[in-house]
Amino acid sequence: MYATKNIEQGDKRSFYRELADQLQGLLQGERDAVANAANLSALVFELVADLNWAGFYFLRSENELVLGPFQGRVACVRIAVGKGVCGTAVAEARSVLVPDVHEFPGHIACDAASRSELVIPLVKDGGIVGVLDLDSPTPHRFDAEDQVGFEALAAIYVAASAL
Fold this sequence. Notes:
One of its GO terms (molecular function) is L-methionine-(R)-S-oxide reductase activity. Residues 22-162 form the GAF domain. It comes from Rhizobium leguminosarum bv. trifolii WSM597. InterPro entries: FRMsr_CS, GAF, GAF-like_dom_sf, Phosphatase_reg/MetRdx. By secondary structure, this protein is of the alpha+beta class. It has a single domain (12-160), classed as GAF domain (Beta-Lactamase, 2-Layer Sandwich), CATH 3.30.450. Helices cover 35% and strands 26% of the residues. The chain is built from 4 helices and 6 strands, in the order ααβββαβββα. A 6-stranded antiparallel β-sheet has the order 3-2-1-6-5-4, sandwiched between helices. The longest helix has 17 residues, at 144-160.
């Protein structure tokens, strides 16, 4: 049985390093992409402060993301590539950090409480297979250190999973 350990929130680099260590332990020996996405979402939602949504969208065609495992309120099921923050991350093949979603043209408001967002593409063999999406009810919740930390978590997920 796996049990999470609370992590001191002070130093972000140390926080994300320990979170990555916990994620590697959690996913060790498991290749199922859905199970791993569900556990990563739960781990992040439990241990990362000030989130109201943490989860996945998977690319199911070249034009559309479809909702995957997540923690939080109900969510939009389908997002077109190029639309919203998630679709933009796929179209531009890069992480997208949005300090205030009200200032992001074309933001898709699945949860009206969300004020900031961070979306990390999931890259497998040079192609994007989906995104890891984090929302917060606090404007400017995410910064460059959060982006680096979540990019590392996404890479661990991709490496561990049969995508």
